[in-house]
Structures are given as structure tokens and as C-alpha cells.
RNA sequence: UACCCCGUGGUGUAAUUGGCAACACAGCUGGUUUUGGUCCAGCCAUUCUAGGUUCGAGUCCUAGCGGGGUAGCCA
């Protein structure tokens, strides 16, 4: 048993970290939770660090949970402690086994392994025994008020509450009533067990909070064994205590539950963990509430919990995010009590940074237009194999051979008949480097009757072969391509942000978050891809040169590849182009 | 208009606990580059306000202002 010191204040002034050597670069990076734990260890309040991640199995985990997971498991790892996974399954009307499984998968996918796996429902027997103790000690009573009456009696934020008639029952009467509640003698809602604290407390959580409610519902683990179920406050801290958790880390909205958390542990005189609250994660251009995510799924705004546009872990996984990048993101954003919103570019940047190191480069043309090399006949053979490096930043990634021919697909965007001064790609009368190929000069274009360009005619410069250029020519631009005869088709799903508003959670008058759904959050196209990609398997991540990072989707088949855009490359040209809007022409 | 928490560049987090406001991202300049990617260099702050204590305040004190949370038999 560990009694808490009187001062649980986490204000900076009250912090008392260990005396870190200033030379330790990580010392400055320690967030307030870490500092509090360091201080507790120093003060011998606890002998080790034991944390837990306590999800309710009523939905899929999202990036916000990842912050909590990284915090709890990370702290345990850093400090040589332990971290449990515990399902807070005290409300059988909302919880399902499906979620229990997905949550475990998600935690493991993120790269963490729990020391012990528990369910709050495993503690129902102990919880009940403790409830009888509180009753016997005169610290809890059975209340007859209806839900409606309970609300009325509770008072308001500015007025104190009134005592429930049950408050004057004797312990013996309460014990009898509680046992009959447990035995199923009463209907749902007929009675509750309430802690006897203070109906005038300014903190409403202390106005005789409900401990047990009656619900004749089948529980996903305990079946029909129980018809009374503990409330969060009654179950959570006690579960922490049973597991000898030292630091019970939760989000800010539980801050004024802490006095109740402490009250239960004190009255029971059991191991007393310290609850510490931090600000939950908000990210721009998305929503994080389980209710809203569920609505997006149920009403088919997305294809499911694992839709690549969802901020769920299953969604991010399918989108192609790496666990490393999510962990890096969580470490990057820090932990504090200030309610902030993180710019989604931070997340995008995290995955870009990781993939830049590990994703092999490949060429794919998403919006193909044909480029014909009119002097290719001068070349000795129809096809020439070109060496292309897999990652210019990583020599060990090696290179591959790609076929080059007189008939190529290039990106429609990479050609303009008349181009602005800063356009470094191909234009009529201009030249461009074909990546890992030759420099070509454009002399003409072919158009259909509607005036659309159907073919671009170029000559190649034999002196300019990639890697053995003897021409001395310099061109401003390099573009990607694939050989028509060697390319294969693939479906490419270009995903974008799900919402157009930075904060869909605060809609304008008369609107809802659904009014800000991005109609262009998914655009699908058929791309031409280089031969090397034919062997790509689901989950493989590559960089399509000059475009972005892509992952092979689970829907992909050997004869019908599907790629998801994880994130685009940083696009400086788009910035320049948007600053100098084209005049007149489309 | 009750109680609790929080205010540091555009965004987020630091500041050896009273001693030159730092790091990252974004933005802007420029350089390198066979990806307009990567990489490199530079620029970008009256620490919410007003008083006070002090040789010295982002940090301590007082008052104000602003933001968030709380009235489930949800978690």
C-alpha cells in the first residue's frame, strides 16, 4: 500500500525532477508526466513504474489512442517498468469482442507488447466485495431514485444537491438491498448503489456518485453472471489498484474525477496509484471522436473502419503509414496539459521522413500521354535496359534495370506546348531529361480533332545516356516515364484529407461536420507502371518518383495491382504555380 | 454566472526550476541535385495584459483577460 503525499499538484512550481546533468540532451525533452514520475521515484513514493493502457472495447483505436499507447508503453520501457493492456469492459450494452481483438492487433502493430492482459470484468467479484465493505462501513448506500430524480437531486453547477432518501438507510438495510440487487430481484434502473460523499460538493463527481447500476444484459465475457455493472469511476481506479499500477495516466476530462479516484482508494485503504492527466490529441482536417468515426462508417461516408482516409490505426495501416512513423509523430508532438490541435502536416511529414529512407523508388505514370522518339530507329536495338538507382540517399538499396524504348508514357502534366518561364519540364521546342534515360528534344505534337494532345514527338540525344553522358548538355528538368511496350496497368487510389475544414468539429451555424467532407478525398485512376512493380505484394511501400509514396493495397491481386497513395512528395512546383496563376489558358 | 485545468513564434513542445527564450514543423531567401524529392545555409518572438517582489522574472506574488472541461444509471 502506498499513501499519496498530500500535494498532487502538477504545476511547474511543484515539480521536483531528479537532478539531471545538463549535459544529458534528453533531460530537456522530459515532459511533465515523466517529470512527475521521476519525482515520485526519487521520493520513494513508488518502487517502480507500472502503467496501463485501458481502452473500452467499443470501437477501433485511432491516432489519439496511439499517443496514449506510446506514452504508457513508452514510459514503462524507458524506466524499466511494465505496462498492461486492460479492457475497461464495464458497460456491456456497448462493448463487443470484435473490438477486443482489433485493439490487441493495433497495439502490437504499433510495436508494443503488454506485460499482462486484463479485463475489468475479471475484477467484478473483487469489486463487489469491496462494495460490501463500503456499505458496511457506512460509505455507500442503495438509492431508490430514478435516473430522472437522481439528476434533479444532484443539483446544478451553481447549486448544491439534496440528499437521496436512501442516504439515511442503515448499513444493514443497504447490505440487504445490495445483495438483492446482485441477486436480480430488481428491474433495470430501479435501484443504484451510491457512494456516500457530499451532496454539496462543488465537484459534482463527489455528489454521491453511482457505483453500480442494474442492467440485465449479457456481457461479452461474463455472460449472465451479473445484472449489476460497476460505473467507470468505481471500476477503473480499483482495477488499477489490483494491478498495482503506479501511474494511472488518462486524458484531461478525468481531471475532476481524481478526487473520487483518490476517495475510493482511501476508503478501501488499498494500493493507491497516482492519476495524471494529459491533453488528448487533436489533428487538423479530421475528427477523432468515436461517435463521429462510427457515424462515418455506419452511414457509408467511408468504406469501413479501415478506410485509408480514417484516422483509425487500421485506417492508417491500410493507408500505408508505418508504425515507426506514428511512433515518431507521437514522440514529436510531446505531452502537455494544454489543449492543442496538431497540424496534420506533422503526421504526413513523419511518414514522409521514414519512407524517404526506406521506400525504393519506382516509376509510374498516373495520367499518361504518349511520347514517341522519332529518331529511335537510329538506335541499334528497339529496347535498351537502363540502370536506375533504387534510393539516391541510400547506396545499399542498389539499382534495377528498366527497359527504355522509342515509345514511352509520360505524365500529361509534364508537358506544355507553351509554358511559363519557370516551367522546367518538357515543352515544344524544349528539352528535358528522362530520368535514368536520355535527354529528349520536343519538335512537334499530334492532336485529335478536339485539340487534345495525343502524342508528343521528340528526338533523343544518343550522347546523353544516363550515367555516361558525354554531351555536356544541361537541362533544367527531369521527368519520369515508362516504356509503352513494357508497362503494365495498375489501379491507383489517390487519397486526400477526409475534410476540407481545418476543424470539422466546430462547424458553422446550422452545419455539421459532415458538411465539410472533402468530395475529392479519393480519386481513382489507372496508371502505367514499370515492370519491376509487377511483383509488388500487398503492404509493399514504394516511392513513385516525383509523385509520392504508395502502398500496395489489400485489395490488390497479382493481375490487378492496386496502390494507395500514402502521402505526396513535397511539391514546390505546385507552390510556385499557385503563386503565378496561368493567365487566360486552361 | 459554481468549481477545476490551461495561456511561450503561424503550429506544437522546451528552457539546467529565478540567470543570454531553444528544438521541430510550417513559411520566406538562397545553395546543391539526373526526383521542382532529399540534403545544406540563412531569416522569422514585446513569453495573454497590468501591476508587484528581485541585481535579474517565461518562471514567484496580486488583479484582470482569454481558452478548455464538468450537471450519464457512458468511458
TrEMBL record:
GO cellular component labels: cytosol
Motif ('KMSKS' region) on chain: 287-291
Entry's localization field: Cytoplasm
Region (Disordered): 1-26
Domain tRNA synthetases class I (E and Q) anti-codon binding: 478-553
Chief place where the protein resides: cytoplasm
GO biological process, one term: glutamyl-tRNA aminoacylation
EC number: 6.1.1.18
PROSITE patterns: AA_TRNA_LIGASE_I
Subunit field text: Monomer.
Name of the protein in its database record: Glutamine--tRNA ligase
Organism from which the protein derives: Allorhodopirellula solitaria
Amino acid at each position: 500500500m502506498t499513501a499519496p503525499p498530500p500535494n498532487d499538484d502538477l504545476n511547474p512550481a511543484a515539480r521536483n525532477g531528479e537532478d539531471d546533468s545538463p549535459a544529458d540532451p534528453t533531460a530537456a525533452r522530459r515532459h511533465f508526466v515523466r517529470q512527475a514520475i521521476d519525482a515520485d521515484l526519487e521520493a520513494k513514493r513508488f518502487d517502480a513504474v507500472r502503467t496501463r493502457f485501458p481502452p473500452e472495447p467499443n470501437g477501433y483505436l485511432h491516432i489519439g489512442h496511439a499517443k496514449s499507447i506510446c506514452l504508457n508503453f513508452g514510459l514503462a520501457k524507458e524506466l524499466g517498468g511494465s505496462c498492461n493492456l486492460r479492457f475497461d469492459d464495464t458497460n456491456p450494452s456497448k462493448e463487443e469482442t470484435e473490438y477486443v481483438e482489433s485493439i490487441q492487433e493495433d497495439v502490437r502493430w504499433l510495436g508494443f507488447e503488454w506485460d499482462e492482459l486484463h479485463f475489468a470484468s475479471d475484477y467484478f467479484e473483487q469489486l463487489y466485495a469491496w462494495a460490501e465493505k463500503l456499505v458496511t462501513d457506512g460509505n455507500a448506500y442503495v438509492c431508490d431514485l430514478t435516473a430522472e430524480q437522481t439528476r434533479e437531486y444532484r443539483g446544478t453547477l451553481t447549486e448544491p444537491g439534496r440528499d437521496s432518501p436512501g442516504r439515511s438507510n442503515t448499513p444493514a438495510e443497504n447490505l440487504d438491498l445490495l445483495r438483492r440487487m446482485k441477486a436480480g430481484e430488481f428491474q433495470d434502473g430501479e435501484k443504484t448503489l451510491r457512494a456516500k460523499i457530499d451532496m454539496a460538493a462543488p465537484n459534482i463527481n463527489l455528489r454521491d456518485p453511482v457505483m453500480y447500476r442494474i442492467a440485465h444484459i449479457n456481457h461479452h465475457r461474463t455472460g449472465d453472471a451479473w445484472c449489476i455493472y460497476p460505473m467507470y469511476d468505481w471500476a477503473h481506479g480499483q482495477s488499477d489498484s489490483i494491478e498495482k499500477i503506479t501511474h494511472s495516466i488518462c486524458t484531461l476530462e478525468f481531471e475532476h474525477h481524481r478526487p473520487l479516484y483518490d476517495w475510493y482508494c482511501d476508503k478501501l485503504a488499498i494500493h493507491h496509484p497516482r492519476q495524471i492527466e494529459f491533453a488528448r490529441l487533436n489533428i487538423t482536417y479530421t475528427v477523432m471522436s468515436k461517435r463521429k468515426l462510427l457515424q462515418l462508417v455506419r452511414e457509408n461516408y467511408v468504406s469501413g473502419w479501415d478506410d485509408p482516409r480514417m484516422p483509425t490505426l487500421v485506417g492508417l495501416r491500410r493507408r500505408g503509414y508505418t508504425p515507426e512513423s506514428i511512433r515518431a509523430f507521437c514522440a514529436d508532438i510531446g505531452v502537455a496539459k494544454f489543449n492543442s490541435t496538431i497540424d496534420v502536416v506533422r503526421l504526413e511529414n513523419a511518414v514522409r521522413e521514414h519512407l524517404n529512407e526506406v521506400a525504393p523508388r519506382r516509376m509510374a505514370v498516373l495520367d499518361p500521354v504518349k511520347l514517341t522518339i522519332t529518331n529511335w530507329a537510329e538506335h541499334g536495338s528497339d529496347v535498351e535496359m537502363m540502370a536506375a538507382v533504387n534510393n539516391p540517399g541510400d547506396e545499399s538499396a542498389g539499382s534495377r534495370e528498366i527497359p527504355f524504348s522509342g515509345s514511352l508514357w509520360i505524365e500529361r502534366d509534364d508537358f506544355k506546348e507553351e509554358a511559363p518561364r519557370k516551367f522546367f519540364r518538357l515543352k515544344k521546342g524544349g528539352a528535358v531529361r528522362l530520368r535514368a534515360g536520355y535527354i529528349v528534344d520536343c519538335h512537334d505534337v499530334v492532336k485529335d480533332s478536339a485539340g487534345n494532345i495525343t502524342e508528343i514527338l521528340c528526338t533523343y540525344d544518343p550522347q546523353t545516356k544516363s550515367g555516361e553522358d558525354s554531351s555536356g548538355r544541361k537541362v533544367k528538368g527531369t521527368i519520369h516515364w515508362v516504356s509503352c511496350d513494357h508497362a503494365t496497368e495498375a489501379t491507383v487510389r489517390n487519397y486526400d484529407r477526409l475534410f476540407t475544414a481545418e476543424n470539422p468539429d466546430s462547424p458553422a451555424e446550422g452545419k455539421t461536420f459532415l458538411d465539410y467532407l472533402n468530395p475529392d478525398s479519393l480519386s481513382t485512376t489507372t496508371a502505367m507502371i514499370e515492370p519491376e512493380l509487377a511483383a509488388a505484394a500487398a503492404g509493399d511501400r514504394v516511392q513513385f518518383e516525383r509523385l509520392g509514396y504508395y502502398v500496395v493495397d489489400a485489395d490488390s491481386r497479382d493481375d490487378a495491382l492496386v496502390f494507395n497513395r500514402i502521402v505526396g512528395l513535397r511539391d514546390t512546383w505546385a507552390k510556385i504555380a499557385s503563386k503565378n496563376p496561368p493567365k487566360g489558358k486552361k
